[in-house]
Amino acid sequence: MTAFLVLLLAYTISQFDRGFLAMVAPDLGRDLGLSASDLALLSAAWFAAFAVGQVPTGLCLDRLGPRRTVAGFLSLAALGAGGLAAAGGFAGALAGMALIGFGCAPALMGSLYLFGRLYPPERFAMLSSVMIGLGTAGDLLGSTPLALATHAYGWRPILAWLAAVTVASAGLILALIRDPARVPDPSRAGLLRGFATVASMRPLWLIFPVVFVSYAVVIATRSLWVGSYLGSVHGFDALARGNGALAMSVAMALGAISYGPLERLLRDPKRTALGGCLVTGLAFLGLGLLGGRSAALAVAFLAVVGAAGLSYAILMAHARRFFPAHLLGRGVSVMNIVFMGGASAVQGLSAAFVLGAGSLDPAALYGRLFVAFGLALLAATGLYAFAPRAPTLTAEPPPPRPASAPAGREREGRA
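-> structure tokens emitted (415 positions)
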């Protein structure tokens, strides 16, 4: 339980980091003289660096374990937060956001690695869903509370405090986490070759498209567009925009936690994720076609998108069925590369779309954007329907249950 709580703090910080820009963007942009396209690039840089960071994350998890991996990367995230707090222009802000994103790369992967090593596959989805659901408290802190704190103290002190909390989290991980025993690689393949092995697993090829799109369209809406959409289309002021983002964030937290029990009830991560992605795609279509008619309807659709849209843990649980133990770290990292690479790409593409459609009124502009999100997700979901549910052959026995884990470091690393 101690390890779970310590890693939960790290993941909560990561969740805050990926969404805080939406709330501080007006003040940060004004103080640094940044345009809307500059701010979009800052957000995209976070996700691009996060995706790039998955390669060393996977290597370090399989070679070093989660303790030193997560703590070391978080130290870089703290450095990035401090650099952003002191930034005087676009270059400094871009470097700070990229370093924060890179440093947050293993914040969740460390937890997933421990869950995969210490618990049987059927518990992976539940544990991951609870971690993700509780970790979205960082997203909640990045909505109305952050808007109020920024108004009271300014964005630079907020980021300085963020750097201090991130350093403290890294220290707790070093002090309280124990790594499970390293699993030898029976194929004796190099560390980098393991990534190629995972990417070449054919059952994953029909999972990759929905992984690329599903998280991307939800997090782009929450971290980049929800504030400007509610402000320009429905006339919300800063506090009302924060409340709208908060409603979506609360729905995301509750939805993420609910996915775990739902998957246990259905006993099938694929069917669970398939239903969630279908609902999310339809909700995006509703938001794009009907959301401009009333603010209440728009917030309701945003809440549905948030509640159904965080199928991340269930998609990861489905993919985890195909990873052998010695490739677990690189397996979850490959999936996260696809998740976060999609997030970076969708943020950049959506920013280009919004900035390139200046002749449209805001309601039509955002309506088309959300319809595009919905259609892309539904198309990827259609491909996902043909993905296999599980490996046809079991290459290795499932990991032992925690109650029967051997004494020593394996037991100490239990989450």
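Residues 238-266 form the longest helix (29 residues).
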